[in-house]
Design a protein that fits this description.
Radius of gyration: 14 Å
Strand content: under 5%
Number of helices: 6
Domain HTH rpiR-type: 16-92
Helix content: 55-70%
CATH class: Mainly Alpha
Pfam families: HTH_6
InterPro entries: Homeodomain-like_sf, HTH_RpiR, WH-like_DNA-bd_sf
Structural class: mainly alpha
Organism: Rhizobium sophoriradicis
GO molecular function, one term: DNA-binding transcription factor activity
Length: 100
């Protein structure tokens, strides 16, 4: 099995699962793709609400590199990655307590 084998057999279903997959080293990410993954973990809202081109510019990589992250994580497209991140951002915002 190649070190860059995508996770098609076990795709992450949630952002938390995605974080776990990366933290546990279940997949090898080339340096520039890892750069995007780190930013995604720090700022999931960036992926959730920005285009692949905007994310690429923010991370200093090509748009292809951003798309490659989705593929290496076993997702069908960047849209799938956006959905995972957007779902997490929505859930996280529900958990924010508001002042009385």
């Amino acid at each position: 099995m190649s070190a860059m084998h995508p996770l098609r057999d076990r795709r992450p279903q949630t952002f938390q699962e995605l974080k776990q997959f990366i933290a546990e080293g279940r997949i090898f990410l080339p340096h520039q793709v890892e750069q995007v993954a780190r930013r995604m973990l720090e700022q999931p809202d960036m992926i959730a609400f920005e285009s692949a081109a905007a994310v690429a510019k923010n991370c200093g990589v090509s748009q292809t590199t951003v798309m490659r992250l989705s593929s290496l994580l076993g997702l069908e497209s960047y849209r799938g990655l956006k959905k995972l991140c957007a779902s997490y951002v929505r859930e996280r915002s529900k958990g924010i307590s508001h002042p009385h």
